[in-house]
Structures are given as C-alpha cells and as structure tokens.
Amino acid sequence: MTTAAEWKAKESEYYIHTFNRQPMVIERGQGVRVWDTEGKEYLDFTAGLAVNNLGHCHPAVTEAIQQQAATLLQTSNLFYTIPQLELAEALVENSCMDKVFFSNSGVEANEGAVKLARKYGRLHRNGAQDIITVLNSFHGRTLGMIAATGQPAYQQAWLPLAQGYANVPYEDLDAIREATTDNTCAVMVEVLQGEGGVNVPSEGYLNGLREWCDENNLLLIFDEVQTGMGRLGSLWGYERFGVEPDVMTSAKGLGNGVPIGAFMCKDTCDVLEPGDHGSTFGGNVLTTAAGNATLRYMVENDVPAHARKVGEYLESKLEGLRQSRPEVVKGYRGMGLLIALQLQNPIAPAVVAAANNEGVLLNPVLPDAIRFMPPLIITEADVDECIEKLGRALDVATAG
Length: 400
Ligand SMILES: *Cc1c(COP(=O)(O)O)cnc(C)c1O
Known about the structure:
It is a single chain. The strands form three sheets. A seven-stranded mixed beta sheet has the order 4-10-9-8-7-5-6, with helices on both faces. Strands 1-2-3-13 form a four-stranded mixed beta sheet. A four-stranded antiparallel beta sheet has the order 11-12-15-14, with helices on one face. Helices cover 40% and strands 18% of the residues. Helix 3 (59-69) runs antiparallel to helix 11 (285-300) and helix 4 runs parallel beside helix 11. By secondary structure, it is an alpha/beta fold. The relative contact order is 0.16. Bound molecules: pyridoxal-5'-phosphate. Pyridoxal-5'-phosphate is lined by residues 105-107, 110, 138-140, 190, 194-195, 223, 225-226, 251-252.
C-alpha cells in the first residue's frame, strides 16, 4: 500500500506547487465524515469548500450520477438535452431569476455575468463597460476575475490586470457612488464575503446598492457562488437580506460535488444572443443531472431551514467557547452555516492542525479566523462533537 508520505512525495514531484495542503490524503467520504488513507475518520466542517451541502456521496445525487453515466455523458450544446433544461427550469422556479446559463465553475459563471453586463451596457447605457467591485471580495482566479477580486495579494503578480474594474472599499455606499461614471454598467458583490473572512454586510448596505443601481440603470450582480444553495439558511443568500439582484451566479453547492456553475438573469437584462457565449462542457448532462438531484432534495426537504436552525445552534456553541476561553476566542460572525470564529491571535493554522489530530476538518480562512462550512445536513450532535474537538485543539494550540 502506498503511504501518505509516499503520496506527498509524488505531489511534490509531479504536481505544480500552488497549494499548501493539510497533510492528510483523503480517500473516502460518507455524509458528514471523510476518511484518510490511514483509515483515520474526520468530521468534515469544510465540505469540499462549501460544496458538499448534502454531505458526501448523498444517495440521491449518487444515484442520479450513476444513472446518467450509464445513459449519456456528453453531447455538447449543439443539441437540446433534458437534464440541462430541467435544472434551468428548477432554478428559475426556485429563485427570482428568469433565465439560466451553465458553466463549469464559479469563476466562469462570473465571467459570463460580466459579459452579460457589458452587453447590457453597450445596448442600454451608452456603451458603458466598467464593473465596480469591492475590496476583500473573491470572485475567482481567471485573469478577468483577479481584476474583479479586490485583494491586491491575488493581483500583484499578474499585472497588467484586465481593464474595466474598479475595486472600492467594502460597505461604503459613498465609495460606490463616487466610483460610478458614465462608463459603469454594473456593481458586483458577494451578499456576504466568504473567502475574505466571512464578512456580513451591515444593515442597509445591499438595499443601498439596489437603490443606487436602480437610479442609475446599473445591473446589480450577486456572486452567490458560496452563499447560494442553502448555505446561509435560505436557498439563496439574497433572500436573507430581502434584496433581489438583476444577475446572480452560483456554483459550489449546485452539484453537491460535481463541477458546475451557472449565471442567471432577469428577463429585463436577458441580452445575450447566439454567438455571444458558449461552453463545451457547460450544462453537460452529467453535471446537470447531479444538479437536479441536489436541488430537488434540497427544496423537497427544506434543507436551508435546517441549516438555519443548526447554524444558530453552532453560534450558541461558539459563544460558549468565547466565554470559556476569552483570552483565545474574540468572537464569531456569519450566517446560516457559513461562520467564522475570530481568534485573539493569528494562530488559526496551528488550531486547524491540532483539530486535524482531534478528527475534525476546519478551514483557517484568515490567520486569525477559522471558517465553518459543514454539510447543511449536520445535526446538533455533530456540532457538539465539533465543538468538543475544537475546544481541545484550541487548548493544544495555545499550551506552553
Ligand atoms: C469559490 C468562489 C468563486 C470561484 O469559484 P471556482 O469554482 O473556484 O472558480 C467565486 N466567487 C465566490 C464568492 C467564491 O466563493
């Protein structure tokens, strides 16, 4: 049997070194748990980076994938296919959006949304082409989206940046107003910043953006790649803020583990035409079959409502950690089952390493913040287990 050390050696020999990985080789998953090659079990509060919202190998999704794999794997968008149209219909029926286009990832969904906004600007706002985004955001890693992502650390090595993006301070409506010019066609934000450290906007921010966009004929684009598909305790994050976008993107949880993304729009900005956009794999029958099974299960079982309830329970337990260890834990922030624990010191990597040993997977989203993004199907008992293990990990990481 190949050992974990041998797999690690292969990684450094063969794989381009862009990831600083946790030391385990994960081999198998079921529900809220995964197992590594040494047979060690972990409670998984990372869920494939907010992807496995129904847990690992959910039977409804696995069955849909198996059936589709034995029926047709790919035929391209030269033809009509059933799973693609069923998923498009289901997304429209379960959101404020009217039209859907499928991509293979979150970043591609955002690229498509920006193309749509630029076409809208060309047709309906005197040729305006620029997009306003905010600092500390995350929209993905293509050359276009690193210009949209307001984090200099992701941008500086790849100059020159794609043109047409203004990154302005977060939660600052005046900054949005000042950055708006005759050449602006859209404002793009996450409803709640995920990779930026789980930052919840203050009351009125998204409403203010909505009003500004309406007054100026700008499209409001919500990047719901991380916040959608139940993560915030409603099917879409915008529902929790009571603000509807014109354009919305989704990906991570959409296929419960298969690579699929989507951008969606209202009829009022459905401006793309044949030749404007395309994708070989986008809307592929395998990924959309998985998406159908995921969305159907999520809606029929009201998984978002469950996520909301368990999320509140998790927050109450984090409050307990804060009270029992005030010198280590500063607080927590988030919504639904996307929550970050704020630490007093930049020890998140050490805490996560200790948590690995305890058997719970967590994500050090910032040096001083640990992100929780478990499968939405977790129970209160799973939360109790996580908190008990995390408590020990905090003690280990701060001992001596
Ligand atoms: C993860 C993420 C992306 C990028 O998605 P990929 O599938 O990795 O391309 C974009 N936006 C947000 C908000 C994300 O969380």
